[in-house]
Amino acid sequence: MTEDSQRNFRSVYYEKVGFRGVEEKKSLEILLKDDRLDVEKLRTFSQRFPLPSMYRALVWKVLLALTDEKTRAHTDVWILPPHHDSHSLVMSYRKGQYLDILRALRVVHFISDTTPQVELYLRMYQLESGKLPRSPSFPLEPEDEVFLAIAKAMEEMMEDSVDCYWLTRCFVNQLNRKYRDSLRQLPRAFEQYLLLEDSRLLSHLKMCSAVSKLPYGLWFKKCFAGCLPESSLQRVWDKVISGSCKILVFVAVEILLTFKIKVMALNNSEKITKFLENIPQDSSDAIVSKAIDLWHKHCGTPVHSA
Q1: pLDDT digit string (tens) for 244-266?
Q2: Are 47 and 241 within 8 A, CB to CB?
Q3: Taking a C-beta distance cutoff of 8 angstroms, is the pair 276, 89 a contact?
Q4: 262 burial class (0-12, 13-18, 19+ CB within 10 angstroms)?
């Protein structure tokens, strides 16, 4: 029996006895033992498999790059560098930066002890990117609402506030810089793949004039933050962070397919949109699993970042 067939046999066996992902976890642990982490191999792993919770923060910090706030360009400087020996020192620098930004905001009386944590992250991000308003009482911009939604979801996933800030900051910058043009095309891609999967459902949405009113902002701009519970959302973000925002399209398609009967029973765009903005949470794990399968079906099994 070849090595691949042995691995496949073991994977099938583990899944049957309830230990799905055991082999993948071992593979990731081997990758994480390298003296210099292979960023591309970590991207590939994250595209192909869900990350174990115990390693998710580490992998995300290695995959997410910082942005040069002057040039607005991604650099090859990650939150954490690939070299293991540098992790402790670099995170101490990140913590120092975090505390310096907080201190600056306190000096200018922009935050206080009662400021909610996610708002702290927003003000820190605004200060770093040169977008801090003249007063904290100024109304929030739409991009600020996106940041807050993602920060709130990230806060549920991460225990450490320093990790939460840097991951949120770099994730939002990835969406704004790397995926800016791609995100604009996702509504059209959504319509294309829904047509392939269920043309009758798409026809119903068009008949109700609901296609243009679907919650694309919640789905694509906020990457389902506030729509899916964190336990399901982090599996979607694994794919986005590792290189493919197109997974968002298939989550949206699968939501429509899962709740097809309910959506077909609604006959106006307002009711359809309201329902899709507040889908039942108990179906989210199954929706994400099916969405990932649908993504592989239409886009193939990624072998590197897409």
Answers
A1: 999 999 999 999 999 999 999 99
A2: no
A3: no
A4: middle
Phi-psi region of 37 (alpha: psi -120 to 50; beta: other; left: phi over 0): beta
- Alpha carbon separation from 80 to 9, 32, 44, 56, 94 (Å, rounded): 36, 13, 18, 13, 9
Cα angle 49, 161, 91 (rounded to 5 degrees) comes to 75
Q: Which two tokens stand for residue 117?
A: 């944590």
CA–CA separation, 227 and 277 (whole Å): 7
| Cα separation, 193 vs 202, whole angstroms | 10
Sort 103 into a burial class: Cβ within 10 Å, 0-12 / 13-18 / 19+. Answer: exposed
Rounded Cα gap, residues 140 and 234, in angstroms: 26
Task: In whole angstroms, give the CA distance from residue 135 to residue 164.
Answer: 25
Distance CA 284, CA 91 (A): 33
Distance CA 125, CA 61 (A): 17
Look up the pTM and report it: 0.88
The tokens describing 151, both together, are 């920060």
Measure the CA–CA gap between 298 and 4, rounded to whole angstroms: 24
Beta strands in the chain (DSSP E): 65-68, 73-78
Over residues 37-87, the pLDDT tens digits come to: 999 999 999 999 989 999 999 999 999 987 654 445 555 568 999 998 999
Distances in Å between the Cα of 13 and the Cα atoms of 1, 2, 17 are: 16, 16, 6
- CA–CA gap between residue 200 and residue 83 (Å, rounded): 52
Give the three-class secondary structure for 245: coil
What is the token pair recorded at 213? Answer: 């009113």
